[in-house]
């Protein structure tokens, strides 16, 4: 039977119609919205690189990144330049030089505002509105890793979770965890002593990163869930596998994939996610709060999601910060000596205690300076969930704001001409006297979404570094290759390798 041409045309049109409606919808909601936001910024005098149609500045970002990769492979591998921003985030640096500390760019479907002006960061610090949240396009991809816990959520739901979880990390609670931190560090100290014995009894070449990660995981496991690392180990290994599946996707570029991932990858993520959830629930269900107002399922997901969040947020960045601290201390043995000298005055019976922590000023300054030069979290990112105002800038709904922390931490106008040097003494009289704009020192973020594990992380770093420096002296191994790399946080790309000797 022959189909008449007009009938064929009608059925083709019927099939195509939903696609046409979808494309018109995308064009109106996404492309036009992005255009409107951009126009409004330009009218306020904010410039930026010219975007291409549909993909915005993505092609240029990728081009600049490739050019930098090629150029940096020719550089001497052993050269340690603390300013890594132009190699790790070259497009932001290039545009900053062209357009200043505030500019706009686009990743195709989204418009962004780069905000690296200290006055505006101060404004962000003071804003208490719920109208600025975490960018949903970023956090959506991280749902399997973080659930709908504090890091990912926004608005009232975030505020409710933060109110419940934050008090668990107040300073008085953290002080009660010092003993368990000291206990958790013992296996690492013993392992490194054994390494020295095994390598001839005088000096050992050790790669510190995995040991620090295990230690930090052990601390957070014991502190939050009472279970030791041996129980939490399975959870960590799966969370790490999940993290690795994400760092492959170029989160920052936000390459539009319309939510689609290859089926095999999607299955892997779903399986890991299910495993992590049941392992966490097994570990905590007896002690979990059963808040009747939340309902049974909501209560379970509240606990599981926030455990995942704390497991992830709580151990990775602290371990990486400890690696960077050891790298810098290895380069600067005079600061190791300074820490030991102070310990001799402060420690009672040669032992670290809760009371002694407040008097360990030198190690605190070293940590502050390491977090200035190598802040593990590279960005503060926000999305305007409603129209809002940032200083004198009218911010449209949907605009994403980005503050590049390492750039702010190296601004000579804030820190002086020695901004790229390791000088812990600048923190001698605290953060407020270390630079012209103390609000520009933001290793733990800004405003109401400031890291809630800040006290916990600082105390843990103090304990771990104090113990290591009291037992070992160390220098950089010739095998160390300086390669800061962005994998959701800025970490030593090939790890930190040091030569250790017993004191
Ligand atoms: C040196 C170690 C750490 C660094 C550098 C760090 C840094 C940060 C940064 C930059 C943010 C984002 C803040 C913002 O968007 O303004 C953040 C958020 C967060 N951090 Fe940390 N963090 C560290 C350790 C920890 C620890 C130990 C915990 C848990 C015990 C933790 C839990 C969190 C949570 C739950 C959030 C989300 C807060 C919210 O959105 O309300 N972090 N952290």
From TrEMBL:
It is found in: Membrane. Its cofactor is heme. The keyword Metal-binding applies. One of its GO terms (molecular function) is iron ion binding. Pfam families: p450 (PF00067). It is a single-pass membrane protein. The keyword Transmembrane helix applies. InterPro entries: Cyt_P450, Cyt_P450_CS, Cyt_P450_E_grp-I, Cyt_P450_sf, Cytochrome_P450_Monooxygen. GO terms for cellular component: membrane. It comes from the Eukaryota. Keywords: Heme, Iron, Membrane, Metal-binding, Monooxygenase, Oxidoreductase, Transmembrane, Transmembrane helix. Heme binds at residue 451. The chain crosses the membrane at residues 6-32. Belongs to the cytochrome P450 family. This is Cytochrome P450. The lineage of its organism: Eukaryota, Viridiplantae, Streptophyta, Embryophyta, Tracheophyta.
């Amino acid at each position: 039977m022959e189909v008449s041409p007009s009938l064929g045309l009608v059925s083709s049109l019927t099939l195509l119609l939903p696609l046409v409606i979808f494309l018109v919808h995308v064009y109106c909601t996404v492309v036009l919205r992005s255009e409107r936001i951009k126009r409004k910024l330009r009218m306020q005098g904010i410039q930026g690189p010219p975007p291409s149609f549909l993909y915005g500045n993505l092609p240029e970002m990728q081009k600049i990144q490739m050019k930098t990769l090629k150029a940096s492979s020719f550089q001497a591998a052993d050269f340690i330049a603390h300013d890594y921003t132009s190699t790790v985030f070259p497009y932001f640096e290039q545009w900053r030089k062209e357009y200043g500390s505030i500019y706009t760019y686009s990743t195709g479907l989204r418009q962004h505002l780069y905000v690296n002006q200290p006055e505006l960061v101060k404004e962000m610090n003071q804003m208490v509105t719920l109208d600025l949240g975490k960018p949903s396009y970023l956090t959506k991809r991280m749902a399997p890793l973080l659930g709908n816990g504090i890091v990912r959520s926004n608005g009232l739901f975030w505020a409710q979770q933060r109110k419940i979880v934050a008090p668990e990390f107040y300073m008085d609670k953290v002080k009660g965890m010092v003993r368990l931190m000291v206990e958790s560090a013992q296996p690492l100290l013993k392992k490194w002593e054994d390494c020295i014995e095994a390598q001839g009894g005088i000096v050992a070449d050790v790669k510190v990163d995995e040991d620090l990660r295990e230690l930090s995981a052990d601390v957070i496991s014991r502190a939050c869930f009472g279970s030791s690392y041996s129980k939490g180990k399975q959870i960590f290994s799966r969370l790490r596998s999940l993290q690795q599946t994400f760092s492959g996707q170029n989160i920052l570029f936000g390459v539009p994939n319309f939510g689609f991932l290859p089926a095999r990858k999607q299955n892997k993520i779903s399986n890991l996610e299910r495993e992590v959830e049941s392992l966490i629930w097994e570990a905590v269900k007896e002690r979990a709060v059963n808040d009747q107002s939340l309902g049974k399922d909501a209560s379970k997901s509240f606990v599981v999601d926030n455990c995942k969040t704390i497991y992830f947020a709580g151990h990775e960045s602290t371990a990486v910060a400890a690696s960077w601290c050891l790298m810098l201390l290895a380069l600067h043995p005079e600061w190791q000596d300074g820490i030991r000298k102070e310990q001799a005055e402060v420690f009672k019976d040669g032992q670290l205690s809760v009371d002694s922590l407040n008097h360990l000023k030198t190690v605190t300054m070293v940590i502050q300076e390491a977090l200035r030069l190598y802040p593990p979290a590279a960005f503060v990112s926000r999305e305007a969930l409603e129209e809002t105002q940032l200083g004198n800038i009218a911010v449209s709904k949907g605009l994403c704001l980005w503050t590049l922390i390492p750039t702010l931490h190296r601004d000579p106008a804030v820190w002086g001409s020695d901004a790229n040097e390791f000088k812990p003494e600048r923190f001698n009289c605290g953060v407020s006297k270390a630079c012209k704009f103390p609000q520009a020192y933001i290793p733990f973020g800004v405003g109401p979404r400031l890291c809630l594990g800040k006290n916990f992380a600082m105390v843990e770093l103090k304990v771990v570094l104090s113990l290591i420096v009291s037992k070992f002296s160390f220098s950089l191994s010739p095998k160390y290759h300086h390669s800061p790399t962005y994998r959701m946080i800025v970490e030593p790309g090939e790890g930190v390798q040091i030569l250790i000797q017993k004191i």
